[in-house]
Design a protein that fits this description.
Elements (H helix, E strand, L loop, with lengths): L1 E7 L7 E7 L6 E10 L2 H7 L10 E2 L4 E8 L11 E4 L8 H4 L9 H6 L10 E3 L2 E2 L13 E5 L3 E3 L6 H4 L5 H13 L7 E4 L3 H13 L4 E5 L2 H9 L4 E4 L5 H9 L3 E6 L4 H9 L1 E9 L8 H6 L9 E5 L3 H10 L4 E5 L3
Parallel strand pairs: 11-12, 11-14, 12-13, 14-15, 16-17
Antiparallel strand pairs: 1-2, 1-4, 2-7, 3-5, 3-9, 3-17, 5-6, 6-10, 7-8
């Protein structure tokens, strides 16, 4: 079938919108009409060549949400018309996968960034020439995508798809780190280092868990302001000379938990030094959580505050705004 997709033609080149051919789903896959796709820095890293095995031209996008159009022959638990979010890929056979630690799959890197399925094939092409895809086994910067049925999460039909795409990656990572890994008790002190999409999702989760104080640490005043509105009790500049001392003062000796999302070594240092004895610092990896949809629908997790919508044709502007920090979480709206 013909699809419209954003192609990265070569390393570090801007996205280009093209008409491509997409092959139908394999037996264990579904074809999804993408309604919206989050954009993450991971997509920009892929564009810019940080994944050494990713070939070009390639279609990125790994936070797709949409409606199942067609199912493969062996897919039993999904049907056309289902609303879905496409999450991260996992092999199902390795030791972590068999222990249900799916986000630690040993094949994850190849499945995310080889541009191919596990069997080496890929479903997109342009005028008969290869276009690599299968980015995170989805390549959701396109009007349609094929994805393994097991990676797809069915959601309520009344839930807004354009807000839920980012749950597939960044937001479940932040919220999952707090709710599934830290499991804080009400009244425990947490500091969130870096309040972008991942950090703010963690912050909202900390609020749901009843953490107090909740200290947001970032260098961007706008983000600290938003963090306050979303539940931070304190907001500190990560570059301040007194930041560590202030954290110790606010918490009476240090935080119980630190969520480090900034990837800045000096900030990681504060995150660890700002802990009290037996405190826990979590560096975000990828954690699976299934509860955020319901939390969002109950009005307890205002994801919409993190999101800025862009028309698909504005993909390069969305990328620039993500890079500058002007937008916390760009979401691309795909044309019908
Ligand atoms: Zn991501
Ligand atoms: Zn695995």
């Amino acid at each position: 079938m013909k699809i419209t997709a954003a192609v990265v033609p070569a390393r570090s080149a801007p996205f280009e919108i093209h008409t491509l051919d997409l092959a139908g789903p394999q037996a264990d896959e579904v074809l999804v009409r993408i309604v919206a796709s989050g954009m993450c820095h991971t997509d920009l890293h892929a564009r810019d060549g940080y994944f050494p095995n990713l070939p070009y031209p390639v279609v990125c996008g790994h936070e797709g949400a949409g409606i199942v159009e067609e199912i493969g022959a062996s897919v039993a638990d999904l049907a056309p018309g289902d609303h879905v979010v496409i999450s991260f890929p996992w092999c199902g056979d390795c030791e972590p996968c068999r222990a249900e630690r799916l986000s630690y799959c040993v094949q994850a890197r190849a499945l995310k960034s080889s541009g191919r399925r596990a069997d080496g094939s890929f479903p997109m092409s342009r005028d008969g020439a290869p276009v690599y895809s299968c980015f995170f086994q989805q390549s959701s910067f396109a009007t349609f995508a094929v994805a393994p049925a097991k990676d797809v999460v069915k959601i309520r039909r009344d839930a807004p798809l354009e807000l839920l795409g980012p749950l597939g990656c960044g937001l479940q990572t932040g919220a999952g780190a707090v709710l599934n890994v830290m499991r804080p008790r009400a009244g425990q002190a947490i500091a969130i280092y870096g309040v972008g999409g991942v950090g703010l999702a963690g912050l909202m989760a900390a609020k749901i868990a009843g953490c107090d104080p909740i200290i947001a640490v970032d260098r961007l005043p706008d983000r600290l302001k938003l963090a306050r509105e979303l539940g931070a009790t304190h907001a500190l500049d990560s570059r301040g000379a007194e930041t560590l001392a202030e954290i110790r003062k606010i918490t009476g000796g240090g935080t119980h938990f630190a969520l480090e999302t900034s990837a800045v070594p000096a900030v990681f240092r504060i995150a660890v030094d700002g802990l009290r004895g037996l405190g826990t610092c979590v560096l975000v990896g990828s954690a699976r959580a299934g509860t955020e949809v319901d939390l969002f629908m109950a009005g307890r997790m205002p994801l919409d505050r993190l999101i800025t919508r862009y028309d698909f044709a504005q993909i390069n502007r969305a990328a620039a705004d993500a890079t500058s920090g002007a937008t916390i979480k760009p979401v691309l709206m795909l044309p019908d």
